[in-house]
Structure formats: structure tokens, C-alpha cells
Design brief:
2 copies of one chain form a homodimer.
Chain A lengths: L15 H20 L3 E2 L5 E3 H4 L4 H7 L2 E3 L10 H5 L3 H8 E5 L4 H10 L8 E10 L11 E10 L5 H17 L3 E7 H10 L6 H25 L4 H11 L5 H11 L4 H18 L6 E4 L13 E7 L8 E6 L13 E6 L1 H11 L12 E3 L4 H16 L4 E3 L6 H11 L3 E4 L2 H6 L2 E5 L5 E4 L1 H8 L1
Parallel strand pairs in A: 1-5, 7-8, 12-13, 12-14
Antiparallel strand pairs in A: 2-4, 3-4, 5-6, 6-11, 7-9, 9-10, 10-11, 14-15, 15-16
Helix pairs in contact in A: 1-7, 7-12, 8-12, 9-10, 11-12
Chain lengths: 453, 453
């Protein structure tokens, strides 16, 4: 039975070339994580649905991939639910496991489950795929990797400073120029307090974010429409037009939030993080951005986002501080701060700006041409010597036409071809051809190894 | 709501220590794969059920984890199937995706789907988790990694030789002494032919395998019971008691299979592989084992299995040649040969024999003790210098009691602790303590970097 094979919508195969580039990205991020003292963990792809449900909002519950129970999955399904095709209430009857939706909830579950084995503060990193039943579209996939680093069990702002420094190091290694945008949830709360409309904080941050695009008047009109009193809008004005250096912005904020204890605490935290990172002479710009408002119901302190400067693209990294990650699993009072790197977007940025190092996609270094059984046997010996010297090589497995073997080398991007024919067999030599320059020379295997190393 | 968090049966969390060991295993295997010219691909965790179903036998179909369709998964479910709770026929109505069960079928699907982009022979490796709804038990998990390398598009036996050489290199690097057991499906067919009972081949290989345990008489009795004629059993006798060197075994086989064309072809192939690998002076034993009979309905030529010599354990690697991997997806005539490394068992062997290199579980190299804000600020500067030199380090984020900070260093296995107190601040020095020896010395940051590099 011949089937036309394909893969599920929103999922991807990765070719050798793509894998080489992805490995470069993951390896770079991981090596920086290690340099900063983070340790890797992995959690299962499947979590109990009870762990996942209710953690991502109603929409998130729908986007979880659920695993059908093994065996007779209908044995606990009540007849009346089946009869009415009540697929919503049947879900927990036919499925008790789901695929992880992010790395944060599994991490929280991990911390609580293994609390007795963990030394706090616990600095963990995790690089694994997650799955979401989102409508697939350009740049949005149903399976994608997240690269997260978090510190839990410490509310010191030094953790924020280290994370900013770590982000700087990662993108310095990639050669991507970035701005690291910082805000603080407490500053946002302070603003809401200051204008007497705490419930309008989301509308306000959206408005601040739009000011460049639609202008002050339109933003004001929108805020009025959303029910913000004119007085509050007037109070907001200096904030909506906030610009200049971080210090200038802080000065405006200080006067605006002078009466908000929470707001002033946020400013104090911001000042500490900005001053401490400024002292480190980072390559990246670090910018206070009061329009930044990610995950409002989740983060409680610093929030941050990274944008690439030389290419149009959404944020390529982001994170923040949360004060009660593990509370939902019965372990209260554990503060943490973390960041997540967007591997797919970093992949696109590196492609767009052509920033991959030349050896990223390096493959086999030497292809041995196959001239027949006797020659092939000699090649196997030579290859053992090359490999002992760390040089990757392979033998074309058939004594096919030279043209075909060369085409293979070219297609695979092999930079050197080694030939051991009759005369080389006799003189115990090897002819090495540089596929880029076309130069070739005949030498001993020792000389060849030296040349290729 | 406090939940007691746990993970699904048969799945595992991996701690930093376990991850470090697993990374050592995967990195070692991957680096050898690359040395031999294999290139990495990845395929999605989810495949269409049409790709997976029917590929692993009836039992395999049951062990596939199926994903519940998103949204109203009951909309295509016929009322009468729901009414009769016919969960078997409902499966394809409520689920169209499943988790991959191995890496082989997704690879076959990949090759067919991307046939126009692939240069043959295609040497791919793949290291990804697979999922099976097996009954969990000691050493058997519902999520585990496979590490596969395959060459497709070439029927040359040089591929077999390279794979044997690659296995040798992998286990040499691990320091695990192994025997590589080889057999050939054609030899097994020849044996079945020679005794006139082709359908009894499985019983025969099982019997050969048991001879050491239960003795010749009991094996013969079992074979009689299974319906093998006495004449066939007599013919089998030299095979059942086959021992000695590979050459001695081959001599016996040659006389037994003299009239079987297939059998003699298998012997010829075996001789080529044995001679070619013998010429490579491998560290591992390579042994012809006619009792080896893995995946009979799948492999068509060479089959191989790896056993650790110094520890009781099932096979830790295995593979073979198949002649029609992609036929089920409509692409005939593609021969391939591959091997799979069992990461979980290798993990256990390395643990049992305590073979992990000392630096496998190396973590942060230096912990900076936190004596307060001013000192911490200086530490951040020093850490930037250390990290620029590639030395991993971290700062304890709170100025906690010395004892607590030291306990953190100990628990994490940090080998050096750096102290910058008031006197070090003044003299622009740093005190470094070796946690193993207890020695400590005060020096400049440049000297510290030199010492720690």
C-alpha cells in the first residue's frame, strides 16, 4: 500500500543543514548558561493533565495536545456524555495526559516534586520542545523548542543583573545587535495607582505602546473610549510621551509615582538593575521601556524583552520575575526570575543577517573515492588514521563513476577528496584534492593528516 | 488549590547530575557519528497515525500514544460506534496523530518525503525520544531516547564494515569492553532451507540461543515438540553445538549450507565483513553468532548486536540491513543498514562500572561568596573577567551566612570558592579557596584566572 507521506500541520522536519544551524544556536546558548552556573534538567514530554489544565487560561486549556488513554479509553465515559457528544466534559474521561505547553509549568512541578533534593537557590536551564494546538501560520508552529533559564529561591536583584549580563553574552556570541528592554511590574502598578485606575493597566500599556504609530491624540481618544477619566489621561500625559535617557525617564517616573509605595519600590529595583548592568560595560543597549507589559497576571517584578536592532522581528528573548511560581502546586513563597530564548526567531535573524560562522554547517571533511575492493581496503586503513587525529571522513561505498562520487562530495559540501588508486597503493601515498581551489597533491598519510588537521 | 504533583507512569525527570551523564553519552555518540560522516536530522514528535499504524504489528498499534484531535474531536464519530463504546473503531475518528514509536519509520517517511532533496547514499543520524504505551517496569520506560545511524541508498557491505568500526570507536571512548555479535539473515534462511523447515527458523534460533542454559538434549526435545522432524534435528546438530573461532564456525556453516544459494551468499557477506573489520585491528571482539535473530521480518542481510563484557545486561546496541525500508511509503528498492545505541542501558553500564570521566558532572567552577552590596558589585566585575576566560562562575545572590553559602557550593559540587571581602576590595585582590584541599590563597584577578584556567 503506497501512501503519500506527510507530517502533521504546523510541525517540521529538520534537514542536516538546518540541524547544523540549530545546533549552533542551542550549543551557544547552553554554553553561556553553563558559564553562568545554570544546570540542565529535562522533564517528560507528557505531563498529567491535572498538572497542565488551568495554568494557561481557558484558551490555553484548548490548545493543549491531549493523549488518548491507552486501551479502552471509553470505559470511564458516562453514556449520557457520549450520547450528547459532550466532547468538553468527556476530555478528562478519555485523556489523563497532555503534551507540555511550555517549560515553566513542568519546571514548577519539578521544583515542588523534588523540593527535598534541591539546593536553593536553584539555577536550572531547560532546552526542550513544547507543543501547542495553535492555528499554524507563518512563523508559528505546533512544535517548537524553548530555551529557558531560571533562578528560583532567591529574590535578590543580583539574579536580574546576571540574567541581563547573560543575555548580552548570548547575543554578543551570535553577533546580533540588540536592545534589552526593561520594565517592572511594580512601576506599572504604581502608574495604575497614580491615575486611580488599577483595572485599566492593560489598556494603558497598550496605549503607550501605540503612541509612535497612531499619535498622542488618537491614544487619548482610545483611552477615553475605554472609560478612563479625562483627569487620569492628563496625569498620564508625561508617561505617554516619555522619552530620552533612562535617567530622564526615571526622573519623570519618580515625580509621577512619588505617592505610590509600590511604584517607588519598582523604581528603586529598576535603578539597581540599570546601575549594576551599566557598570558591566555590556555590548547591548539596556533601555527602560514603560510600555513593556508581558504576562501581567504572572510577573511580579522585573520584566524584560530583547529586540534585534538590525532586522524587523518580534522579541527574540524575554522573561521576568514571578513571586509564586509553585504556589499552584502547594509550595508557597518561592520567588524566581527567568528568561526564555526564542530559538526559531534567532534562527531567522541569523539567516537574514547571514551571521552563521563559516564552520557551522561543516560536514565530513574528507571523502575517500572508491576505486575498487583493494583500494577501498587501503582507504579504510587511512580513514582509521585520520579519525584517530579527529578528522571526519568517509568512503564512498560503491566504486561508482568518478563523476558520481564527486557529485556526492559537492552535494554534501565535503571540502577535501582523497584518492588512493593503483599508483598510490604502490607508493603508499594518498592524493588529496582541495574541492574549493581544485589544487591536489600526493603525499604520505602522515603529511595528509598534518595538512588536514 | 494545592495538588500533589507527579509525572505519568513510566516517564522520568532528569536531574542536573543525570543530565550531565546523559549529555556525556549523547555527545560521545554524536561526535563519533560525525567522525564517520553521518549528518543529523530531526523529525516531529507527532506523526500522522496513517504513517505509524500497521508498521509495528498489531501489538505495536496498541502501544502507540494517540493524540486526541483538537476542538470537537467527536464531530466525526458515528453515533452507533459511540453507543456501543467501540473504542477500537473510534480511534481513527477521534485521533489522527500519534507520538513516534521509533526513529526508523519516521526516517523512512522522511526519506520518501524529501527524496528529491537527498543525495544518495544518505547517511543520517537521529537522537530523539520515542514513546511507547508499554507496561512500565524496571528498565522499561514509556519515554526514552533512541540514537540511530543509518545509511540508505547503498547495498555495499563497506557500510556494514564502517558501522562495526563506528560501534568499536563509540565503546572504546566509553571504556566499555564489548563483543560485537554478527549474523546474517541469509545464513538463517540457508539453515531453514538446509533442514527443509523454513517456517521453523524462529524456533531454531531460540533453541540455539538456549543451548548453553538447558543443554543439547533439552533443546532437541523442544524442537521435536515444536514439530521439527528428527532428520532435521540431526542435520542441525553441528549448528547447535557450533563453537570455536569465527573461521571454525564458518567452515561448519559452509558444509551445512553448501546446497543453499542464499546461505552461501550470507556466508560470503559474513566473510567480507569479518575480514574487513579484522584488518582494522578493532579493540572489540567481533564474533559470528548464528543464534542472533533480531527482527526477522524486517532485516534482510547482516544483523548485529552489542553486549557489554563486564556487566550483566541485555544488548546495548543493535541493528542490521533492511532491503525495503521505504516500500511501504511507495518508494521501492532502497537498501539500507543501520544501528541504534541504547542510551538508557549504556547509562546503566557506565554507572555500574563507574566509567564516567571525572569532569562529566563538572558544574560551576567558582562560587563567589556574597559579603554585601559593595563586595558583590566587585564580584560581578571579576566574574566578567573569569567568564571572558571561559571559566564558569556565579555569585551567591544573597549576603547570607558564610556557612549557608559554603553549603551551597558543596551541594552543587563547586570546586573553588572566591572571596572578595573588605581587605580584598582595598588591595584589589581575590582570595580563592580550593574546596577539595582546603588551601586558599590571595592573589590578583589575573593570577586567579591563570590558576583556574
Amino acid at each position: 500500500m503506497a501512501q503519500k507521506p506527510s507530517i502533521p500541520k504546523g510541525t517540521r522536519d529538520f534537514s542536516p543543514l538546518e540541524m547544523a544551524k540549530r545546533n549552533y544556536i542551542f550549543d551557544t546558548i547552553k554554553s553561556v548558561f553553563l558559564l553562568y552556573g545554570f544546570q540542565q534538567i529535562e522533564t517528560p514530554a507528557m505531563e498529567n493533565l491535572s498538572t497542565l489544565m488551568g495554568k494557561y487560561g481557558e484558551e490555553g486549556d484548548k490548545l493543549l495536545f491531549k493523549i488518548l488513554n491507552s486501551g479502552d479509553y471509553l470505559k470511564d465515559a458516562p453514556d449520557h456524555l457520549l450520547a450528547s457528544k459532550d466532547y468538553i466534559h468527556l476530555i478528562t474521561k478519555v485523556s489523563e495526559k497532555g503534551l507540555r505547553y511550555d517549560l515553566t509549568v513542568p519546571f514548577a512541578r519539578y521544583v515542588v516534586q523534588h523540593r527535598n533534593d534541591l539546593q536553593m537557590p536553584f539555577k536550572r536551564y531547560q532546552v526542550q520542545p513544547v507543543w501547542r494546538a495553535d492555528r499554524p501560520q507563518r512563523g508559528r508552529y505546533r512544535e517548537f523548542y524553548q530555551c529557558d533559564a531560571d533562578v528560583v529561591g532567591s529574590d535578590s536583584l543580583l539574579n536580574e543583573v546576571e540574567l541581563v549580563s547573560m543575555i548580552d553574552e548570548v547575543f554578543k556570541r551570535f553577533g546580533i545587535n540588540i536592545v534589552i528592554k526593561l520594565n517592572n511590574r511594580k512601576i506599572l502598578s504604581g502608574i495604575a495607582e497614580a491615575i486611580g485606575a488599577p483595572e485599566k493597566i492593560v489598556d494603558i500599556t497598550v496605549a503607550i505602546d501605540k503612541i509612535d504609530k497612531i499619535g498622542l491624540d488618537n491614544v487619548n481618544a482610545e483611552l477615553l473610549e475605554k472609560g478612563l477619566p479625562q483627569e487620569a489621561i492628563d496625569t498620564l500625559r508625561p508617561l505617554l510621551t516619555l522619552s530620552g535617557t533612562n535617567d530622564e525617564k526615571l526622573a519623570t517616573l519618580k515625580s509621577l509615582l512619588a505617592n505610590s509605595e509600590t511604584g517607588m519600590k519598582g523604581i528603586e529595583e529598576m535603578i539597581f538593575v540599570l546601575n549594576s548592568t551599566a557598570a558591566l560595560s555590556l555590548k547591548s543597549q539596556v533601555e527602560l521601556d514603560v510600555s513593556l507589559a508581558r504576562g501581567l497576571n504572572y510577573y511580579t517584578g522585573t520584566i524584560l524583552e530583547v529586540k534585534a536592532l538590525d532586522v524587523e522581528m518580534g522579541s527574540i528573548s524575554g522573561g521576568g520575575r514571578y513571586d509564586n511560581l509553585t504556589g499552584v502546586f502547594g509550595m508557597d513563597g518561592l520567588s524566581g526570575v527567568g528568561i526564555s530564548f526564542g530559538a526559531d526567531r534567532i534562527f531567522d535573524v541569523l539567516n537574514t543577517l547571514d551571521l552563521y560562522p563559516a564552520d557551522t554547517t561543516a560536514t565530513t571533511k574528507v571523502l575517500f573515492i572508491n576505486f575498487g575492493d583493494k583500494e577501498a581496503a587501503a582507504c579504510l586503513q587511512h580513514m582509521a588514521a585520520l579519525r584517530a587525529a579527529g578528522i571526519s571522513c568517509e568512503l564512498y561505498p560503491e566504486s561508482a563513476k568518478m563523476k558520481k562520487q564527486m557529485a556526492y562530495a559537492n552535494a554534501k559540501g565535503v571540502p577535501f577528496v582523497a584518492m588512493v588508486g593503483e599508483s598510490e597503493l604502490e607508493s603508499r601515498t594518498i592524493t588529496v584534492k582541495n574541492m574549493t581551489t581544485g589544487n591536489q597533491s600526493t603525499c604520505t598519510i602522515t603529511q595528509a593528516i598534518e595538512m588536514l588537521s
